[in-house]
Design goal:
Shape: elongated
Number of helices: 15
Number of domains: 2
Number of strands: 16
Oligomer: single chain
Distance between the termini: 48 Å
Length: 454
């Protein structure tokens, strides 16, 4: 879960408190994410015959729209995006100029063996503006666009230590403080999950893990008037943090040295500690992090014959809707090569999501079971690549249409098919495109020029 946002915290926090969330945007209002995408255009379309500048403009425009579509895909389920593509395209995707904060990197355009012009683009996108646009669109059209995030599981552990005991004595769990904190979490409607004593992440573990530690000191005071000795419990320090158990990322932490405050007995002190920790978290805090646009996972691919094939696979992955960014980290011929993937697909059924939105489009491209998931545990997915039979691997990657087209909404294919020659090319590349392409007539050659003179 990688949420690049510096989140403003609660009024109860001291001014020096830091939120341990890598920042993509300076404030919640200006939240941004980094997205990589691939743009496509058909150089043989009639409207480009006498205007290669228009070809380059359309190629870049398609790349920018794909960047924005990927950002939309972090907030909207893929099925919802495809079903409402025309509406989202009209109200959101066409605003790519205003939604993209800046272009970080742009590749040189090239003509592939598949007959299309390609360009890769990496850009910073205003995610908060997209979310606002989708919310407004949902209200005006009376449809639910922004995806629900389920009922999160939150584990709680509060440990207490007596300051008078040595550092070699481990702190003890306090059920009193934990139960107070659990009551607050349950009031949000969330599930409270048990924390494993080992602290190691396991499948089915909590989505968030809250842990706190309080240190007490027992102070004895002699009352001269009565001659009695009175014991007080003083809180000397306390810490609290919230982390993602699967990745280990700390999404919030706070250390406090409280003002002079004492309690007559330890149980009363522990109850108040539970209240202090609970006050650090609100329902909005968890909802903001559930809306985090992506998570990082490690993709290990076995069977790549050479480094060039690894780079070809990276390019295919960049085109897929839920793959926001890809880094090719390590290569081993015939063994496990490592990719780091910034992924925006579902986390509730992660394996199914990877199989549907990564493996399936790749296998459709090659027409067989070329990629298969071996395992998916925690933040690591292991995949086996079996080179397609009958031709060189590199030839198959380059000759066949991009895997991204197999998950594209019909509107994207229709925008790409500027005239009947392009439609024929797509039908020849894959007959499955025919039904989607034939649903609307092609754009007439010269249409762009006519629009310019209007």
């Amino acid at each position: 879960m990688r949420f690049h946002l510096l989140l403003p915290m609660f009024l109860l926090l001291a001014p020096t408190v830091l939120v341990a969330v890598p920042a993509r945007g300076a404030t919640a209002e200006a939240q941004t994410i980094i997205v990589s995408a691939e743009g496509l255009a058909d150089p043989d379309a009639g409207i480009y015959r006498n205007d290669k500048g228009l070809l380059l403009d359309d190629l870049r425009a398609d790349a920018r729209r794909q960047v924005v579509e990927k950002a939309v895909g972090t907030l909207v389920e893929s099925s919802t995006l495809v079903e409402n593509f025309a509406l989202i395209e009209d109200r959101v995707l066409t605003r790519s100029q205003g939604l993209i904060k800046n272009v970080i990197k742009e590749s040189a355009p090239w003509r592939g063996e598949d007959g299309f012009m390609h360009i890769l683009l990496k850009a910073e996108v205003f995610l908060s503006d997209i979310r606002d646009s989708l919310k407004e669109l949902s209200r005006t059209q009376r449809i639910s666009l922004i995806k629900e995030h389920g009922n999160p599981k939150i584990s709680v552990a509060v440990r207490v230590k007596d300051a008078e005991r040595g550092s070699e004595i481990p702190p003890e769990r306090s059920e009193i403080a934990e139960n107070i904190l659990k009551q607050g979490i349950s009031s949000f409607g969330y599930r409270v999950w048990s924390e494993p004593e080992s602290g190691k992440a396991k499948d089915g573990q909590a989505d968030f893990a809250i842990s706190g530690e309080a240190k007490f000191k027992k102070v004895s005071v002699h009352l001269n008037a009565s001659g009695l000795d009175v014991s007080k419990y003083v809180l000397t320090s306390w810490t609290v943090k919230c982390l993602n158990p699967l990745t280990g990322e700390e999404i919030y932490f706070n250390n406090q040295i409280p003002r002079k405050q004492s309690w007559n007995d330890e149980d009363a002190a522990l109850a108040d500690i539970g209240k202090l920790i609970a006050a650090e978290f609100t329902k909005d805090f968890f909802e903001d992090h559930l809306l985090s646009p992506s998570k990082i996972f490690q993709l290990q691919v076995s069977g790549l014959p050479d480094y060039d094939t690894g780079n070809l696979l990276k390019k295919e992955l960049i085109g897929l809707r839920h793959m926001l960014n890809i880094e090719f980290r390590d290569f081993q011929a015939g063994q496990a090569s490592l990719f780091e993937v910034d992924y925006s697909g579902s986390r509730e059924n992660f394996v199914q999501s990877i199989n549907e939105y990564m493996i399936a489009p790749l296998n459709k491209k090659f027409g067989g079971k070329t990629f298969a998931i071996d395992s998916a545990r925690g933040d690591t997915v292991q995949v086996t690549f079996t080179p397609p039979a009958g031709e060189e691997t590199a030839t198959a990657f380059n000759r066949l249409p991009p895997a991204a087209l197999y998950e594209a909404a019909p509107g994207r294919l229709q925008a790409l098919a500027k005239d009947e020659s392009t439609r024929a090319k797509l039908r020849e590349l894959d007959p499955d495109f025919a039904a989607q392409l034939d649903s609307t007539p092609p754009v007439a050659a010269g249409g762009a020029k006519a629009a310019e003179s209007f």
